[in-house]
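Today's session is about reading a structure prediction critically. Students often jump straight to the picture, but the first step is always the sequence itself: look for stretches that repeat, for charged clusters, for runs of hydrophobic residues. Only then move on to the predicted structure, which in these notes is written as discrete structure tokens rather than atom positions. Here is the chain we will use throughout the hour.
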Amino acid sequence: MAATHLKQLCEETYTKLKKASMELERYLNQVTLSSLVAASGDPEEYETYYRAYLSDLRHLLVYCENAYDRLGVSLRRARFNEEFAEEVLYQVYHTCINSFYYPKGEVYEEDSRYAYTGQDCIIFRKQVTPELQQLTLSLSKVFEQLRNELQYYENDYIAKKRRHKEQAQV
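Below is the predicted structure for this chain, in token form.
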């Protein structure tokens, strides 16, 4: 990948992760587990669900903040380090994007068939508050763009690392 394209991709990814982090942080600073449970009716049914949901969101926030911090370091360096940037983008794909689409608490899932119809592709396991639904769907648009832009790192980055490793062994 050309250095200028790689740097541009890092800048775009940095901006999107910063936006996602700000949305997540704003939401997590405003909401409490008890307020979510109270807004949803049955406390026994929803407390465990919302606890898992908030835990997943906190983890996602940490992953996003770490990734955009590392991207910021990469972009601020006097000499752009392509290898470091590629590694960070690979980590974005495997931590942030995978954490969003495969939440540990399995509070929602992606139905990719909806993506082709222009509908929201996130299917919630339980009915959630409108604010949480809006946040999740907003984040899905950001992470869908990131996933499309960074799919290169799913295969090519690993293959490149293997080639370097094999060449070093020779």
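Discussion point for the tutorial: The chain has six helices and two strands.
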